[in-house]
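ESCALATION

Customer reports they have been waiting on this structure for their group meeting. Please prioritize. Original submission:
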Amino acid sequence: MYDTPDLVGTAGHDQSEPDILPPPPAALPVVVRPRPRPEAVTWGPPHHQALFSNASERPSSWLAAVPERPHALHDSWWMIAAAALAASSVIAGVLWISTHVDVDPTLHTVALFVHLASLVLGFGAVLVADYLVLVWLSGRCTLAEAIAGASRLHLPIWAGLAGLIASGSLLEPNLASGLTRTKVSLVLVLTINGLQALILSRRIAQHVSIPLTRRLMVWGASTALVSQICWWGAVWIGFWNAEH
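Update from on-call: job pushed to the front of the queue and completed.
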């Protein structure tokens, strides 16, 4: 009988405890703060960064700082001089071979055929190139068309000249003859003239849209004249030596 109040009190205490506890605090609003953007990492001085600010723009000032170097034979007179020296060494080696090689009749016949075929290939291509220049001078084609046609003839011209030099070493040339030495000199001059003509061709190609200067006109006429003299002179001497 004494336990009832305690149980009742306990029960009453349990029932009134939820009302006595303070209400839970209201949820605070979540404030999202923007994250700071990382600073751009720069590599080098600030003016370098400005060059690459736009991906579509090329770093012209940076490229301009790189010196241009010639990569082709017609880009430098020094390379032309080195090529002329190498060609002279090759011709000297061919002459040495011609005096130390015994050629039988069969090999001589083959070398003669290659010599004549190389003459047709090289000299024929030179005549076509000069004809294209005459066509341009007569007003029947543009300078760009003449240059494009002549540029396609460089390979047969040089192939024909190389075939003439290589096969000539097997034709037992008489180096004691003045005509033969003259022919060798003409071939050497022809080779050097063809090398410097590469620079001439590039200079003329840069004046396609504007009239040619007097200097280029004289340069081109002199190159063509020297070429014709060397080719026709070598052909005549070769014919004379074959007949005598």
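Sent to customer with the following note: Residues 104-243 form one domain.
Escalation resolved.
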